Amino acid sequence: MIKGTKYFAFLIIATLLFSACDKDDPEEVLEEELITTLNYTLTPSNGGTAITLSFEDLDGDGGNDPKITGGTLAANQSYVGTMELLNASESPAENVTLEIDEEDEEHQFFFQSNVANLSVAYNDKDANGNPVGLSSILTTGDAASGSITITLRHEPAKSASGVSNGDITNAGGETDIEVIFPINVQ
Amino acid sequence: MFNKKFYIVAAIFLFSIIRCQAQDCNISINGYVFDEASELPLSYVNVFVQETYKGTITDDNGNFVLDSLCAGEYHVQFSHIGCEPIKFHLDLTKDTVLNIGFFHTVNSLGTVVVEEQRDNFNNQPNLSVNRKTIEDNANKNLSGLLETETGVSLIKNGSGISKPVVHGLYGNRLTILNNGIIQSGQQWGNDHSPEIDPFAADKISVLKGANAIEYGGSNLGSVVLIESKRITREPHLHGQVNYTYESNGNGQNINVRLAKYSPLLAWRINGTLKKYGDRKTANYFLNNTGLKEDNLTLQLEKSWDDKLFLDFHASTFNTRLGILRGSHISNLTDLESAWSREEPFYTESNFSSEIEAPKQHVSHHLVKLKAKYYKNENQIVEAFVAGQINNRKEFDIRRGGRTDTPALSLLQHTFNSEIKYSHIFDKGWKLKIGNQNALTDNTNNPETGILPLIPDYISWKSGVFSTISKTKNKVQFNLGIRYDFEDQLA
Prior knowledge:
The structure holds 2 protein chains of 2 kinds.
Chain A: H1 2-20, E1 37-44, E2 51-56, E3 67-69, E4 71-73, E5 78-87, E6 94-95, H2 96-102, E7 107-113, E8 119-122, E9 135-139, E10 144-154, E11 174-185
Parallel strand pairs in A: 4-11
Antiparallel strand pairs in A: 1-2, 1-5, 2-3, 5-6, 5-9, 7-10, 8-9, 10-11
Chain B: H1 2-22, E1 27-35, E2 46-49, E3 54-57, E4 63-69, E5 72-79, E6 86-92, E7 96-102, E8 127-130, H2 131-136, H3 142-146, E9 152-156, E10 162-166, E11 175-178, E12 181-182, E13 203-208, E14 222-227, E15 238-246, E16 251-260, E17 266-276, E18 285-286, E19 291-304, E20 308-322, H4 332-340, E21 347-348, E22 359-376, E23 379-395, E24 408-424, E25 429-444, E26 457-472, E27 475-489
Parallel strand pairs in B: 1-7, 11-14
Antiparallel strand pairs in B: 1-4, 2-3, 2-5, 5-6, 8-13, 9-10, 11-12, 13-14, 15-16, 16-17, 17-19, 18-21, 19-20, 20-22, 22-23, 23-24, 24-25, 25-26, 26-27
């Protein structure tokens, strides 16, 4: 009987102790590795108005659908492409491009196109002489339409066969972001 | 050191000579060995006295006689095909009668339940893995050991990470009871394997049906029980060392177990160390598939007049698990390309035992104090209090030098208490009633820099249950009711 009493005493104490304190709200965390925005700006090499292909998903994976803006490009034209990555969930928006630039040996963009005669070539190199893709040259052919898939891989095997030529097949690594832009060449 | 040992040995030697001279050597042990289940006599059971190297076998009626023994301390062993041997210590002073019940099962698992007379309050578990199987499969983790059982399957996430699935239920729907305590970890994730060292256990069983109602948690019908035997009443220090080497992965397991009984205090220590490097397929090494584990368990037992038993149990489990880099994917495109590869990404041509990100660091600590009181032959009161700490850190490949910062870091504190009363009535009716309480405090460590997947929470859970069971001939009847109350504050 004494044991029972003690047990109930313990119960009551425990209940009092634990119901007395509410769980504090967790400390606010600033999401560090989110990429909410990708802007691929294409400037015609002979001057003219730049076109920006953009992807924006402010609430990260899931939730609201991302906003994807494709573009219309001129036929038989060459463009200088500049990549910009942002984490706009923070204020002010964090420029992720700088981080990629700092760790350029560990990152590479891949451009896959199903638009006839459209090709993308790398216009930059990391310290090991391998391409990164923050800067690129896009060349269009005759009028066509389709899409370009831009993929950023973290820690790809840059020395694997074909990877430095922009072939993603043997790259491996983790996909940081992958976006499909609709493209129209006129 | 050696001198001292020799001195003790010599003293025992002398002492036994004196005793032998002083007393006659005509003491006999006789007895009867039977099958616990059918209650029929068991013939051809080997009875062996370790100290004298003499033995006998039981006759057709299960009887045996060992005579011409001197007074003294002996270890007597009973063994029979298909059963785990029963061994115990005997302080022989006069003619002794031993009646031994073997739990002789025909099924290939060779389940043996060594039960003291009073411990038959337990309803029989449906399936079980015994100590022998655990020792023989030292390279397997808890889930791997259960895999061979009917109705149990696994979710595997690479080397060392696997979760048991019973009848399609897993995670928090499958309660795992580690020495009577609901294992409290991060059961929500597919890659969160139970943080238990199977080597510290003597028996692992899966309980299904109404009996499972006795155990709280969010289980929907099945319970995995991990139990250690009571420390054998063996006044000498007994120990066991198991070492396993696995050539694939250069895997080494070492387990040491020491136990000693004394009326003052009985103790048992169990320690396990595991180390595996990268596993190899026919042509290449799988990068980052190693694991490191170190576990320690301490058991203390004390009893008063065989009426009141006090048990203390403390254990710590620490593991570092590597995750195959080539299987680490971030989206469906990665998954597709991983599937279509003939050889996974990141294979190596050289062996390495490095564990790098992606990896998991998991620690689980448990402390339990239990009291059991036998009011009389038919009434038992049991109570325990227990505390657990579960710390899980998962590391991903991250940008900006953050790979060394965990992507997931959780700290969980759990307190459990239970009180249970069992009563055996006439005609084989058994009644159990009890109350269980659990308090869980789960905290995300903000060090990760990533929005946590699950919120911080405190959960308070209380439950009462009652089961009635009766076995008549071959029919077993079970009835149970349970009421749970849960309050969650997230």
